[in-house]
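Support request, please re-run this one:
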Amino acid sequence: MKHSSIARSARLLPLSALTLTALIGASACRSGDIDSRAAESAPAPAAPSSGAGGAAQRAARARPIPPLAPEPWHVPVGPTLLLEPGKGMGPIRFGAHVETIERLIGEPCEEKRQESPHVLACRYSAQAVEFFLTDGALTSAHVHRLGRPFHNQEPKPDFGIFNGRFPGGAAIGMLMSAVQELLGKPKAVHPIKDPNPYDTIEVHDYDGFSLEYDRLGPDRVVLGGVVLTAPGAAKPASSKAKAGSQAKAR
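Re-run finished. Output below.
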């Protein structure tokens, strides 16, 4: 009997040691801490064995590691702003005061600028939108694509990603054909021949809003800007300057 008990204990001993080793290893993995010196000094893995196991090891090592995104990380920020011609965008309606805009955006205007004695501009670079108030009330809003310059002063930040779109799905960055499939043909097209900071080549007019198309490459023209205008209000001066003096009706 004693001989049988000793034999069983001898057989269980390696299993217990292996179990203890596995538990210690699992605890170390869960910590998530990596010692770079240990990683650098660790010996190279042994050559994979032949068969299915070796093939699996080779496939695991060959899997590429995704690169880290460079700064800044461009993501939409702020509230979702649905572009509604004749009404405004999201909860921000035409007629709103600057205090209301700042409260709904969630932060003060990044830049306030008096465009004229009666027009105040409230501008946000990360949210990629500018609000224009006439005599204290919102009359126009200008949305921008990612990469358009915010201003020409140093440092020169760019507009971020606008967090919104039209109710039908048309959005900044779309190709002209896709936008027209969703919004229809414009009432008029204004070609832009002079160089400009946004690389805008055409402005398309619709009822209550205008679309600005930017050339980003030889064969790539995308929706780069949207100007919403309150009923009866004039476009902001910055948009008028890009519209050109000749309009070609379609």
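The CA atoms of residues 198 and 205 lie 18 Å apart. Confidence is low (pLDDT under 50) at residues 2-43, 240-250.
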